[in-house]
Specification:
The chain has 437 residues and is α/β, with parallel strands linked by helices. The chain has 13 helices and 13 strands.
Length: 437
């Protein structure tokens, strides 16, 4: 029996070449019984643990909490198809990316009101208060527009949407916005404005039928251009910010997909859009917030002491331009283009338009108007404009949009700001701030 003592105390540590000595059959049987006893012991402990676990586990809830799946499934497809259903054969079926954004919300509502099928797509990122985006989403939902929660970089999602709905048009408004934020998070601009745009174009060129695409560019592409007013024929190769560079890159990428794959593509260069449901990172918005809190606001001036001016364009005018671009967009010519890469059947439409108000207003005048509307004396601090990518002025030549889209802005800055202020007071503090009026 002394041979048993050569077994190591820890199971699995036996090394036969070191500990091996001849032993008889009785010893062998004894060792086997010990191993069998240990196996039985551990099996019993494991079984007892499993029984104990199931006894203590709570019974399934009648309404179990499910892992959030932002898209997919029969119910989801029903909501998608219902939202995208158009009122007549002549109406459009439009995928609106960035639908819970500022411009996206207004465009989606306008399309739905006139009977077009509209499906929204938005990732609800946290660049600014997502509660505002959720409030816009509720507004859209009440109007019958379903907003799919997802990202334009999700290739499977985009292909799924095009499989479920035969979109006639795409209104691409999803983007990482803002000039100054690019200095903090440059990768977000590459991810959304370039990679995301390419992903959308890839899904569009592979769709059957291929949709016509209208997308948002920006007045920022004119960069350091000093010729005014800005015309679509002017140079755009001197961007002053990374945001502007990504928007310019988007225009060039759009040209490539138009040239190779026959996608009908229209770019819209927006000029400082403002109005109700606007973006909190815009000057008119955070000026209003700070003025109501009696905080000092900073007004920038150009390096030579001149005024900084913007071609402020009211949201309703921008919406008219967007709808005009959708209505005049011709069909794509690469129907059937898929992974195999069939050639387009002919040249496709490719356009770029300025959408502005063609009446630049100094930012100092913007503050004066807010002061009158809010009835609060503004505390101002004038400082030189920092080197953060902002430009001194913007001024749109809109003759091309007037001629081809019937675009004609009608809202002056004071009228537009009056509508914005009324919305702001009602949205953020409807009881307290009614006293302002």
């Amino acid at each position: 029996m002394d041979n048993i003592n050569i077994l190591p105390s820890t199971p699995g540590k036996l090394k036969p070449e070191k500990y091996y000595q001849p032993y008889n059959n009785n010893n062998n049987n004894y060792i086997h019984r010990i191993r069998l006893s240990k196996l039985t012991l551990w099996s019993s402990i494991f079984l007892a643990f499993i029984i104990f676990f199931f006894i203590l586990s709570p019974s399934p809830s009648p309404n179990p909490i499910r892992t959030h799946n932002p898209w997919g499934g029969p119910d989801w497809e029903k909501r998608v198809t219902k939202s995208a259903r158009r009122s007549s054969a002549s109406s459009l079926t439009v995928l609106v990316t960035g639908a819970s954004g500022f411009v996206g919300t207004h465009v989606s509502l306008a399309l739905k009101r006139r009977g077009d099928g509209v499906l929204g797509l938005d990732n609800f990122n946290r660049y600014y208060d997502p509660n505002l985006k959720r409030a816009r989403q509720k507004l859209l939902s009440r109007a019958g527009v379903f907003v799919v929660e997802g990202d334009i970089n999700d290739e499977k999602l985009l292909h799924k949407l095009f499989d479920v709905v035969p979109f006639t048009h795409v209104m691409h408004l999803a983007a990482q916005a803002g000039v100054r934020y690019a200095m903090q998070n440059p990768n977000s601009y590459i991810h959304s404005n370039i990679a995301g745009f390419v992903n959308l174009l890839e899904a569009s060129k592979s769709a059957n039928p291929q949709p016509s695409i209208v997308y948002a560019s920006s007045s920022s592409v004119y960069g350091l251009n000093s010729k005014v007013p800005f015309s679509e024929k002017d140079r755009t190769d001197q961007p002053a910010s990374l945001y502007a560079a990504t928007k310019k890159a988007g225009e060039e990428i759009a040209h490539v997909y138009n040239h190779i794959y026959g996608l009908s593509i229209t770019g819209l260069r927006f000029f400082t859009v403002y109005g109700p449901w606007g973006r909190p990172d815009m000057a008119y918005f955070f000026f209003t917030k700070d003025i109501l809190k009696r905080k000092q606001i900073t007004v920038f001036e150009s390096p030579d002491g001149g005024s900084v001016a913007r071609d402020f364009t009211y949201i309703d005018d921008i919406v008219k331009g967007c709808l005009g671009a959708l209505d005049t967009a011709k069909k794509s010519t690469g129907v059937g283009v898929g992974v195999g890469g069939k050639k387009k059947k002919g040249n496709a439409q490719f356009r770029i338009f300025n959408l502005g108000n063609t009446s630049p207003v100094p930012v100092t005048e913007l503050v004066d108007i807010l002061e009158r509307l809010l009835k609060v004396k503004v505390k101002r601090k004038v400082m030189p404009m920092p080197r953060n990518g902002d430009v001194r002025f913007t001024h749109a030549n809109i003759s091309k949009a007037q001629r081809e889209l019937g675009y004609m802005p009608t809202t002056d800055l004071e009228t537009g700001l009056n509508k914005f202020v009324r919305w702001y007071l009602d949205f953020y503090n409807p009881l307290k701030n009614k006293s302002v009026w």
